[in-house]
Amino acid sequence: MVRLYQEIPMTLFEKIIARQIPADIVYEDNLVLAFRDINPQAPIHVLIVPKRVIPRIGEATGPADQSVLGHLLVQAAEVARRLGLAENGYRLVINNGPDGGETVPHLHCHILGGRLLCWPPG
Ligand code: AMP
């Protein structure tokens, strides 16, 4: 994967994509990577991230981001199916900014399932 801005430090998730940091990878294609969250909040908790960094959903813009985000959501559903979550259901979450609980500035979608998830979220 070519990085356009070499002077910007790699995000944690870029290091996972580059196999510099280990992760339990459950799905990969040319646009996205999905791996198990290191601090799971449900029996199944997977993160799916675009390989090309978009810092957060609030900064997504233009047709290229639209295309990768559409793919990411479709593949999130496919990963959920493969992990056996289709029948009982699951939740997709994208945290944006401090109040949203975002801690890693590399857009990612949480796939949570395997238990009843309460609403509203905390
Ligand atoms: P967020 O708070 O939405 O930015 O989500 C970041 C997520 O990344 C959290 O759920 C963390 O548990 C998860 N996380 C942090 N470091 C790692 C790692 N090395 N491998 C897998 N997940 C991680």
CATH architecture, by name, is 2-Layer Sandwich
CATH fold field value: HIT family, subunit A
CATH superfamily: HIT-like
Low-pLDDT segments, ≥5 res: none
CA-to-CA gap between the ends? 37 Å
Shape assignment:
globular
* Tally of separate domains: 1
Helix percentage range: 25-40%
Q: Compute the gyration radius: what is it?
A: 14 Å
Strand order of the biggest β-sheet: 1-2-3-5-4
Secondary-structure-derived class = alpha+beta
Q: How many helical elements? A: 3
Order of helices and strands: HEEEHEHE
Average pLDDT value? 95
> How many beta-strand segments?
5
Task: Summarize the main sheet.
Answer: 5 strands, antiparallel
Structural descriptors:
single chain; 122 residues; alpha+beta; HIT family, subunit A; 5 strands; 20% strand; binds adenosine monophosphate
Could you describe the 3D structure shown?
With 122 residues, this protein is of the alpha+beta class. It has a single domain (12-113), classed as HIT family, subunit A. Helix content is 25%, strand content 20%. It has helices spanning 12-17, 62-82, 97-100, and strands at 25-28, 32-36, 44-50, 90-93, 109-113. The chain has a five-stranded antiparallel sheet, covered by helices on one side. A hairpin with a 3-residue loop joins strand 1 (25-28) and strand 2. The mean pLDDT is 95. Bound molecules: adenosine monophosphate (AMP). The site of adenosine monophosphate (AMP) has 13 residues, from loops.
Helix-strand blueprint:
Layout: H1 12-17, E1 25-28, E2 32-36, E3 44-50, H2 62-82, E4 90-93, H3 97-100, E5 109-113
Antiparallel strand pairs: 1-2, 2-3, 3-5, 4-5
The site of adenosine monophosphate has 13 residues, from loops.
